[in-house]
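Q: What does the assembled structure look like for these inputs?
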Amino acid sequence: MRSYNFIFSGIIIILALTFYFWGNAFSADAGQWPQFFAITMLLLSVLLIVDTVIHPDREKETDEENKEIKPRIYDHKVFASVALLILYIFIMERIGFLLTTPFFLALLLWFIQYRQKGKLIAVSVGTTIGITVVFQFLLGVPIPQGLLENWF
Amino acid sequence: MELWLNAVADVLTITNLSIILFGTLFGIIMGCLPGMSSTMSVAIIIPFTFTMDPASGIILLSAIYCASVYGGSISAILLNTPGTPAGAATVLDGYPLSQQGETGKVLGVSAVASGLGGIISAIILSTTAPFLADQALRFGAAEYFAVAIFGISVVSSLGGKNPIKGLIAGAFGVLIATVGLDPIVGYPRYTMGLPELNGGFSLIPVLIGLFSASQSFMLIKSVGQEKKQTVKDVSSHSRPSFGEIFKLLPNISRSSLIGTFIGIIPGIGGDPAAFVAYNEAVRWSKRPDQFGKGEIGGVAAPEAANNAVTGGALIPLLTLGIPGNTVTAILIGGLLIHGLRPGPMLFEENGDVVYALFFSLMITNILFMAFGLAFTKYFAAVLKVPAVILGPIILMLSIVGAFAIQNSYFDIWVMLAFGVIGYIFRQLNVPTTPIVLAIILGPIAEESFRQALLQSGGELTIFMTRPITAVFLLLAVISFFTPFVRNYIQNNKGKKADTQA
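A:
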């Protein structure tokens, strides 16, 4: 967690400085509040760095065998899901939820190692139809229609 | 009295009873599933209440909230894994009892204790909240600033092992909330020229991202790493007798009062309430040595307390507009999409909705108590749904939910961005609840602070000379520094123990 805390603090400091200097462009009334909290966030990040140096084991987590559990942000399944999701949202915006979602769900399930083909298709198609029927027709909640706009 | 009669008539319609039934079932199922939280369950449903009338919408959300807290006990008892954090104390005696073949009895006691805890807290809520709201009507800008700061101050206790991270998350939330037009002079701040950001980030996509989408990423990450667990068959086990329940009544009543009281204090939540009630049950028991090995009182106490928190946490929310915990912070989103702003004026302007909520809470608690006694074996079957299926389905619901509020694709992108932020924050042990608290309370604090200064001609003494303001600011200081003082004392105790050893 030590190195992650340093990286996290570094990113937050950059973010805080961005908010602070960007706030200089606002009228005095509008800028003071966010600038105060930008400085606060910056100071807290510095404090986190100092605290991590003084107490490196504060957040140490161990498993049943007393081995340290290290945080793992990067996971290829999550990374693939987010990448697929970005592509999906771009395409869905043009084509619509009903036509895009079964393919997206099938691909996503495949990427995250779901290999039972029959169930994969059933879950992809079933979820899409289920969400459409329940939300569009029963609850009257709009879902993105894309090419099918005005069809139902 | 008229408001109560109207509430009864409002709630006892086919539509609202069906809504309570659906909310209760959905809440129990979501609560059952390890890794799903009450927060996520409520966040994901909010957009779908948009087309309902305000009373029905808030009734649905509160039914999900109460039932999901109860649902958490089912997996705690059957799997040794609490479905929600509030069910953690239930594991201590619930699972050993289940191993001893008492599964039916312990699930029954859990249902009754949860239901009674919820009902007792709903009664306290409905009797005290109108009185407190009446007092809060006298609040001006300075008082609202102090109350908002008091609400924000609890972020220091939400940081887990490292309070600094909770504070960073809170400051981050306040900054996120400043995106959009300035509330007093209308100056655009951090909008990057995007018209979609003039009104700031929409609250619901942010909430769905932080709590639902990030949860689905966590589930996707856990695929292939789940431990194989066998769910016990509960179909043939007996139920608790009336006599057994009767003996537990003093324990349940005491735990319900503890839960309600802790629920009122912002930032503490269901899990500490359950543990405090558990400790008290041990202290008052004639067989304290049996606790932890399979004592039925050790199930009744935390279950009554964690469900009693639901009513307690609604008291500061409805009377002052301050969320008592994360779920009630999310409920604010549910109120806001119907144009209802929580606080004392809610009782004045929308008393019908508030009293319908009070009455529906009692119905919900009775309903899940009945479900818990009759149908637990069916809910237990839900525990077999794998993370590989749940993750993508929750992701789809998050997308549809984020879009539904304003028919906006931009909101889907916002949801995704906050989903990724939520996932990264969770991995780094940075709590996400302070972000939500700050996003909700930050704008209230800023607007009332600046209004108060306008009224006082720029004199900061306005915050010290008004008694209610001063009291709330003092409470904020105490609440802010308590976790640091507690850490300091614990560290000193640890050092003393080390040197003595």
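Residues 216 and 391 of chain B are 4 Å apart (CA to CA).
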